[in-house]
Write a structure and sequence with these properties.
heterodimer; A: about 300 residues; alpha/beta; Rossmann fold; 10-stranded mixed β-sheet; two-stranded antiparallel sheet; about 30% helix; B: about 525 residues; mainly alpha; 2 domains; two-stranded antiparallel ribbon
């Protein structure tokens, strides 16, 4: 989990390259999406402050559930899983805001034990109390839900705790993606679904992702774009660019549409409308595509 | 509790602990194959069949030599199957009337027939020992059945804890579970054998050990040489207690007589004698061997013929010539012919496999392949950061390889079936095989209509099965690992071999090298 010297220098360079070096507290607190440049934990803190503070999302005694991407049995440096240190920051802030407990949960692609062993989460959360990291696959942890607003995916098997919690936080990582072009916040929910093969096999992938987004309503989205796998995602190993950026917001369509312009994906410049699920989700009223450029604030100030 | 029972329970516990520790997190100092390595029958048969001395043969021969010195101590003090039989007997059969009285000698020669069958088949070049060897039997039952059942029970317990945790808000105890190991039909057959052996207690106490166990027969032959003999001093009143309590009915009608080939050093004739006149010591005066070897001409011929028939059966099986597509051996498995001879079906590789892709085979490899490990990629893939199967293999049927070598020990090749793939047939947006492939062996091609479709670069696929395990097509999936281009080497480097054949299995990026 150590940040190497190369990473550090690149991160510093990236941070100083940001044109708008304004302190974040000048931001209006009603933005639907914000972006900060800096190391993961610091930028995450700044993002949440800019969005109005964790108390806006977490009330005293809340049962909080965080859904990061921990679907792959690889180390954080590969950029396949959400950086556990960003999730740790979220957990600490949630507990400080009065949360009763925090559950970090995912249904990974690779085998549970290997993911847990290699993705760094065990190591980071081992000594913290009121937190549990769980990777699940068995039927007993899922519940069938109806998606009334969906066009194709009318039902899905979802991790039960996501439905039953008080505060749901989506903590995805930005990656290129073989089938879906890119993956940010909305695509991350496929990791909460047990029968996700249906997304590929029975229906249109983009439509299914948009369908699921009409159902699931996270209170907060934190998108990890610190180590960005710009090619060969979602598993890698691909070309990981160190971008040291964290996006945050409440509108999944806005967050995803801004993240699209971060970098070329698999060598292609994309716009939000090029990505099927973003376009469809906007069409179905999940959120609004944000075309105006988003100022990127420095978390170093 | 006697000293002997203490030893027995200790060894049985040690056996269970070793089975539990047979995992991919194996540390070198844990001798998980301890009991299998002590078994001279397994190692002699495996060495004989494969015409090379199996690793660990020396240690097993030491056990044989010790038996020649002091008798069948292994059976009475160490054997985990023997202990299980005794414990089962005490729980289930003590109060029942047996079929035959304790001292009666029933079918004692059968075990020599079993031994002969195994040795003759081994001499003919075929491995049969796995079928009846007690250590192989009990290890197999433990890895294939006891372990999955234990996990199932543990998960039931964790469900209960989880329910309470949810009720009272103990977050650290919610949603806990262990990966459930599967239990195919072959596993049940392995368990059925052990259950049948336990039920033989109905005939006589430790009937298996007296009359059927081929390892017992081998050790019995050695034990005939022991100078460490039983003596009965003069004031014996012939009350017959020693005959009744003897674990294996080794004492003759005249209590001075006993059969060292049958005696398992249980010491009950010494401790239970009310006059305390029985003792064991170096043979002086000359020992009184009660019985000649229970091996007449008929039995000798039956054993030899049985072994020859078994060898012939394997030799003529079509499964030796045609291996089904579904049969994928673990990476590092010796060439199929030697592999079948060396593998003793202990199931330690299956137990150690962290993903559960290794499963006991039923009859895909013919009768000869029964219970040998095979991949079921649809259940799970072969983890590329793990080399446990080779590390725990007691006979080297699966070679113990470093991760760099193991990556090149190609299992097979993923074959993409266009007519099943949802991208080729249904124009769906699916690239799960490509997404999950660590070797980037899946790439896009253009179909005649110019649409992009997945395809496999056979130079880059090492058959790990990741794609097959995640393919959303129902049933066996649309991308299936077949034995094509597999690399099976008896010796030498897999990396060099795969290089010679022009394959590239790129190492994962250095930053991703997880610590093992």
């Amino acid at each position: 989990m150590k940040i190497t010297r190369r990473e550090m220098i690149q991160g510093m360079a990236a941070a100083t390259a940001v044109a708008t070096m304004m302190p974040g507290n000048l931001l209006a607190a009603n933005e639907d999406a914000v972006a900060f440049q800096g190391d993961g934990p610091t930028a995450t803190k700044k993002v949440i402050e800019a969005l109005g503070g964790m108390k806006k999302f977490v009330s005293k005694g809340d049962k909080v559930v965080i859904k990061p991407n921990m679907g792959w049995a690889s180390a954080p440096a590969q950029g396949a899983n959400t950086d556990p240190l960003i999730v740790k920051t979220l957990v600490e802030m949630a507990l400080n805001a009065g949360a009763k407990s925090v559950l970090i949960v995912d249904n990974p692609v690779q085998q549970l034990a290997q993911c847990k062993e290699r993705n760094g989460y065990d190591e980071v959360f081992k000594k913290m109390s009121d937190v549990a990291v769980r990777l699940v696959r068995d039927d007993k942890f899922f519940v069938e839900v109806n998606l009334p607003k969906a066009r194709q995916l009318k039902t899905a098997m979802v991790i039960r705790e996501l439905i039953e919690c008080d505060t749901l936080i989506n903590a995805p990582i930005a990656k290129s993606h073989g089938s879906a072009l890119v993956t940010f916040s909305m695509k991350n929910w496929m990791g909460a679904v047990q029968n996700r093969g249906a997304f590929h096999h029975d229906f249109d992938l983009h439509q299914s992702i948009a369908d699921f987004s009409t159902f699931i309503k996270p209170k907060l989205i934190i998108l990890d774009a610190t180590r960005v796998m710009t090619t060969k995602g979602p598993a890698g190993p691909g070309d990981v660019k160190l971008m040291y950026r964290v996006y945050g917001g409440t509108d999944p369509v806005a967050v995803d549409s801004i993240a699209v312009t971060l970098t070329p994906w698999n060598g292609k410049e994309l716009k939000a409308a090029d990505v099927g699920y973003i376009r469809l989700a906007a069409e179905m009223g999940v959120g609004r595509i944000r075309t105006a450029e988003l100022p990127v604030w420095s978390a170093m100030a | 509790m006697t000293l002997r029972r203490g030893f027995q329970l200790g060894f049985l516990l040690f056996f269970c602990v070793l089975i539990g520790m047979t995992t991919d997190r194996l540390r070198l100092w844990i001798p998980v194959e301890f009991f299998l390595r002590m078994d001279p029958l397994l190692l002699i048969a495996a060495s004989l069949a494969a015409r090379t001395a199996a690793a660990g043969l020396g240690a097993a021969l030491v056990v044989l030599a010790l038996t020649a010195l002091v008798g069948r101590f292994f059976c009475g003090w160490i054997c985990p199957l023997g202990t299980t039989i005794e414990l089962a007997d005490e729980v289930l059969y003590t109060r029942r009337k047996r079929r035959w009285p304790n001292h009666q000698r029933v079918g004692r020669g059968l075990k020599y027939i079993n031994l002969l069958i195994i040795l003759v088949a081994a001499a003919a070049g075929y491995g049969l020992a796995f079928l009846l060897d007690p250590i192989s039997l009990i290890t197999r039952a433990a890895t294939y059945v006891v372990y999955p059942v234990t996990v199932f029970s543990a998960n039931l317990g964790l469900d209960g804890v989880g329910w309470l945790a949810k009720k009272f808000g103990w977050i650290s105890l919610t949603m806990m579970q262990t990966r459930q190991a599967t239990m195919p039909t072959a596993s049940l057959a392995a368990a059925a054998m052990v259950i049948a052996i336990l039920m033989l207690n109905r005939l006589q106490r430790r009937f298996w050990c007296r009359s059927l166990c081929p390892l017992g027969a081998l050790l019995g032959l050695a034990a005939r040489l022991t100078p460490f003999q039983r003596h009965v001093a003069a004031p014996c009143d012939h009350d017959g207690k020693c005959r009744r309590v003897c674990e294996t009915g080794a004492i003759g009608e005249d209590p001075h007589e006993y059969d060292p080939a049958e005696c398992i050093n249980c010491n009950r004739c010494v401790t239970d004698c009310h006059l305390k006149v029985v003792s064991f010591g170096p043979a002086n005066p000359a020992p009184r061997l009660a019985k000649p070897l229970d091996l007449g001409r008929r039995r000798l011929l039956t054993g030899v013929a049985g072994g020859a028939f078994g060898a012939m059966l394997f030799h003529m099986s079509p499964a030796r010539q045609v291996s089904p597509d579904s049969l994928l051996r673990p990476p590092g498995a010796l060439p199929e012919d030697i592999f079948r001879k060396r593998c003793i079906r202990c199931g330690q590789c299956v137990k150690a496999c962290p993903t559960g892709t290794l499963q006991p085979d039923w009859f895909d490899g013919g009768l000869e392949g029964l219970w040998a490990p095979a991949h079921r990629m649809r259940l799970a893939y072969c983890d590329q950061g793990c080399n446990a199967c080779g590390a725990v293999c007691p006979t080297g049927a699966i070679r113990s390889l470093g991760l760099d070598e193991k990556r090149c020990a190609r299992i097979g090749t993923a074959i993409l079936y266009k007519d099943r793939c949802v991208v080729w047939t249904g124009d769906r947006l699916c690239m799960v095989c490509d997404e999950s492939c660590q070797y980037k062996a899946v790439y896009w091609v253009q179909d005649p209509a110019g649409k992009r479709r997945p395809w496999v670069d056979y130079h880059r696929c090492n058959g790990c099965g990741m794609c097959n395990s995640v393919c959303p097509v129902p049933g066996e999936g649309a991308i299936i690992v077949r034995p094509d281009y597999q690399i099976r080497l008896a010796r030498g480097s897999y990396a060099a071999e795969s290089g010679r054949r022009g394959y590239h299995f790129d190492k994962l990026s250095s930053e991703d090298e997880y610590q093992k």
